[in-house]
Design brief:
By secondary structure, this protein is mainly α. Helix content is about 85%, strand content about 0%.
Length: about 210
Amino acid sequence: MILRSKTPLLFTLVSCLIPLLWLFADIALNNLGSNPIQALHIRLGDWSLRFLCLTLAITPIQMVTKWRGMASYRQLFGLYAFLYGTLHLLTYLVVDNNLEWSLIGTDILESPYIWFGVLAYVIVFLLGVTTSKWSKKRLGKTWKKLHRFVYVASVAAIIHYFWQLKGNLAEPLLYLIIIFFLLSFRVLTWVMNRQKKLNKPQNLRLM
């Protein structure tokens, strides 16, 4: 029974690795096009952003469906956003710049869009390394406040994506719309909960 209840989570865990395996296959078969390094950047960055969107989507889905088992999926998608984001960063540092720190430093100074990428990654990194139950217990109320920065990371990632592209903006625009609706849902929920708290004492006095 326990194994059956964990089967969907295990299936999701394996499925989230398919994009990475597909990428490895394309590298081995030389299917990355005329600019393979750029293709690596884009595909790894895309999947990091997609998993970030999935992470943000869990709370609205959980609130609508009332299914509390979604928390495990939120953690899983968040870790995959961290994994693909780390590979995206390593591609830039190792493959693209061969760890030439002077070149990397100059590139960061001359390319403001990288600042937003760094901001997004630092937040995702902090969220990734504090996912465990031990971290949650250790940080207490700070843990929840820290993990709300996932919204800041998503906005920074979108700006990073938009700013560096010079051609077709359809895909980053789609991500922007998704994140806008997810953030709007969160803000609306916060406003409604706040209204309930403000109205509760008045109702008690009337009783």
